[in-house]
Design the sequence.
């Protein structure tokens, strides 16, 4: 087991023929990241953002344009993939159809000339961990998608890697199977205590599995921190809107001063939200920015509430929660409530917003505006 360090990592594809949505034609640009020994780090971002390219550079499957990669204390830029002491679990299962599950798991060790008894010991040790001990005699064609992925991961960890790399391993599974596999992966990683890099575009997977999340967009690292940090303290509008389901409400606003207090106002809407005192040092009368607040921090006020009366535009009953949409100009402000009241479009509710949970973002750059 070893840590991972990415230092000023760049990847540029020359003469690719395809226009990539990247910054300055770089698929990965100046990526700096440290993953401590034993940590589980998720690379999270939309499709085409550079997360898989980064993982493939770590694995040695892509050449590095510039920068350095260290696994432990070893600079691995020029090492062949087989010499990097890594385990790989890809999106595609890539199992050998003529071989049993046992032989698929054992294949890499046999190729390296490991003693037969040692191979058998490792297979018998890994199989219960990945819950495939009753599948060892089966052929791949007889396995479900979830079973194939467990075999895929078992092949990666049987090598006893210093670093385990997983590239969207759950993307081919349906919702229920994905949830079950997330639980199994977390249990497995806790047992083997292996430094792990996990690529995903699913923020729920990243939030539930990772010790730290690297949020990437257009090849640029946007934020690197714990799930709580990227959720509660996003550095910019992209991170704020990408993390969370449903996503954060982000609305353009103009602050106005009434007497000695400031309020967020919105075009073509009567809604006014009190500006938290902590922002008084950065706002002014007529100050324009974007205000963000998560749906669970927008509340339905009670009978004695001083909240603003607003008309419901949409209502969704999801069983364990209700989602209400309120039109604010041309935008839709979403809120989540556990209240069992069944609303309908056109009903009037009193809207309250937890001011301490609001965030401000620059209109042009999207960067978070912090209180001074």
Sequence:
């Amino acid at each position: 087991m070893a840590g991972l360090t990415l230092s000023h990592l760049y990847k540029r594809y020359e003469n690719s023929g395809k226009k990539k949505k990247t910054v300055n034609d770089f698929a990965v640009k100046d990526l700096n990241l440290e993953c401590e020994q034993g940590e589980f780090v998720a690379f999270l971002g939309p499709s085409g953002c550079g997360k898989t390219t980064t993982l493939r550079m770590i694995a040695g499957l892509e050449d590095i344009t510039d920068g350095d990669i260290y696994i432990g204390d070893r600079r691995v830029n020029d090492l062949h993939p087989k010499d990097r002491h890594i385990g790989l679990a890809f999106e595609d299962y890539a199992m050998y159809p003529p071989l049993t599950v046992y032989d698929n798991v054992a294949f890499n060790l046999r190729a390296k000339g490991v003693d037969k008894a040692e191979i058998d010991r490792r297979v018998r040790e890994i199989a219960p961990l990945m819950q495939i001990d009753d599948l060892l005699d089966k052929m791949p064609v007889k396995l479900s998608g979830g079973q194939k992925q467990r075999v895929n991961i078992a092949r990666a960890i049987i090598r006893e890697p210093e670093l385990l790399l997983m590239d969207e391993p759950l993307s081919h599974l349906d919702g229920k199977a994905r949830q079950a596999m997330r639980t199994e992966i977390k249990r497995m990683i806790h047992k083997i205590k292996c430094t792990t890099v996990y690529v995903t575009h699913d923020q729920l997977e990243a939030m539930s599995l990772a010790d730290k999340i690297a949020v990437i967009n257009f090849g640029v690292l946007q934020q690197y921190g714990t799930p709580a940090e990227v959720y509660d303290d996003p550095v910019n509008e992209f991170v704020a809107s990408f993390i969370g389901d449903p996503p954060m409400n982000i609305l353009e606003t103009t602050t106005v001063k009434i007497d000695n207090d400031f309020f967020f106002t919105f075009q073509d809407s009567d809604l006014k939200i009190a500006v938290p005192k902590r922002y008084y040092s950065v706002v002014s009368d007529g100050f324009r920015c974007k205000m963000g607040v998560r749906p669970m921090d927008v509340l339905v006020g009670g009978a004695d509430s001083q909240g603003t009366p607003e008309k419901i535009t949409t209502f969704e009953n999801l069983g364990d929660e209700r989602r209400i949409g309120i039109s604010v100009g041309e935008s839709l402000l979403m809120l989540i409530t556990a209240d069992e009241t069944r609303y309908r479009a056109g009903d009037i509710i009193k809207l309250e917003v937890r001011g301490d949970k609001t965030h401000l973002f620059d209109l042009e750059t999207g960067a978070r505006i912090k209180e001074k």
